[in-house]
Design brief:
Order of helices and strands: HEHEHHH
Organism: Panagrolaimus superbus
EC number: 2.3.1.41
Number of helices: 5
GO molecular function: 3-oxoacyl-[acyl-carrier-protein] synthase activity
InterPro entries: Beta-ketoacyl_synthase, Ketoacyl_synth_N, Thiolase-like
Strand order of the largest sheet: 1-2
Keywords: Transferase
Shape: extended
Radius of gyration: 16 Å
Number of strands: 2
Largest sheet: 2 strands, antiparallel
Length: 97
């Protein structure tokens, strides 16, 4: 059975940029989003075997009121999350069913 799919838009949050245009520009220019970890508190840094990663910078997931409404998580509570958790709800919302 064939499934029909309609793509109504594209979006991306990546180490190369927080929107489609800047991420695509980084890809086509051959830039790497990989670099030294900067969003991890020094107290936690020694827990990692690597000190380099592709970090998303300048993105505040707590500003997405629609997303947090779906999960009933306030922006205040979201700011207490571990820095590696914020994108998980977005993947659940936009990921495969």
């Amino acid at each position: 059975m064939k499934r029909r799919v309609v793509v109504t838009g594209l979006g991306i949050v990546s180490p190369l940029g927080n929107d489609l245009a800047s991420s695509w520009e980084g890809i086509t220019q051959g830039r790497s989003g990989i670099g030294p970890l900067t969003n991890v508190a020094d107290a936690y840094l020694d827990r990692f075997t690597t000190k380099i990663a592709g970090e998303v910078k300048g993105f505040d997931i707590t500003a997405d009121n629609e997303l947090f409404g779906k999960f009933r998580v306030s922006g205040k509570d979201a700011k207490r999350w571990d820095p590696f958790i914020p994108l998980r709800p977005r993947c659940l919302v936009h990921g495969p069913a």
